[in-house]
Write a structure and sequence with these properties.
About 30% of the residues lie in helices and about 25% in strands. The chain is α+β, with helices and mostly antiparallel strands and about 400 residues long. One of its GO terms (biological process) is protein refolding.
Amino acid sequence: MSSRDWIEKDFYCELGVSSDASADEIKKAYRKLARELHPDANPGDAKAEARFKSVSEAYGVLNDPAKRKQYDEARRLFAGGGGFPGAGGFGQGGFDMNDLFGRAAQQGGAQGGMGGLGDLLGGLFNRRGGTASSAARPRRGDDVETDVRIDFTEAVQGATVPLRLSSPAACGTCHGSGAKPGTTPHTCATCSGSGLVTRSQGAFAFSEPCRDCRGTGKIIDDPCPECGGEGVSTKTRKLTVRIPAGVDDGQRIRLAGQGEPGRNGAPSGDLFVRVHVNPHPVFGRNGNNLTITVPVTYPELTLGTTLTVPTLDGKVTLKVPAGTTSGRVLRARGKGITRRDGSSGDLLITLEVAVPQNLDGKARDALAAYAEATADHDPRADLNALLEGR
């Protein structure tokens, strides 16, 4: 791609984000589009493949903070009335912009005039004293995120979960070199291994990635048959992830170095596993505490009783004092969630009166007799007193 093409393309539009989008928003938009447009998901669809390449190209610039800054500055510079050199505006009429930059640098030195503009364009198009292009520089691999769903009990007690991932990985045949086993890449004669060539365009001389070596500085005569010389291939990997005890719903677990492979010797990215926990039919959770609601009868609360309550790993016996109110919460200490750091929660037991839907004659007579015996007791007396005292 030429320097002019790079500036005139709207990479933000390609990804569907605003020009002030955060790095996370850019990454999220790219991943969504990459999943939708990936050739594996659209076999034989040339339009989707071309769009996938455009989206990847845009992400390659906007995901690099330095490149994004230079891209934004160049777009502001050439926007509006200025125009792109050779396409109208200040680049017309045989006016030599290099003369302007040269004079400005002589008059103002490194700090004066427009001397910094050449540095901006040189940095944008990888022209900084003949340094290697970004394609040849080591670059850490991207992080990868995946989701896993586990049962409530597994989240509380911990579990080992198998994962299958289809993602870019270092080629197992060439081990990332891109060359066929037994062969070695050689230095590109066109760019002398720098990955850059200088081309004249209008009033400017721009450096851009070498087309022969694609900016890598190396030529592969015998590409690896598995990855086609890329050094990276899409593979389905099998991993085993240890889910720690007490993991929360939505929590992410980091597996260092299990993301996409780095380029040119750089380290791989990380894999983040987001955990989704299925609800339990009986137990709930409140931090490190487990919760449960236990139905009881009115006589059990009134007269007191002993209850046997289930836990995730057995049962516990609790004494309910006489006169206990419905809704009271009892605590079974140490029967909650135990984390890796040794902290442990409790089991919180909410007592709730179960009201019978139907009563036979004997039970109804007994309840009527109880109501008559306690007719002098007004359970709302305190409430009425407060209302009357307002």
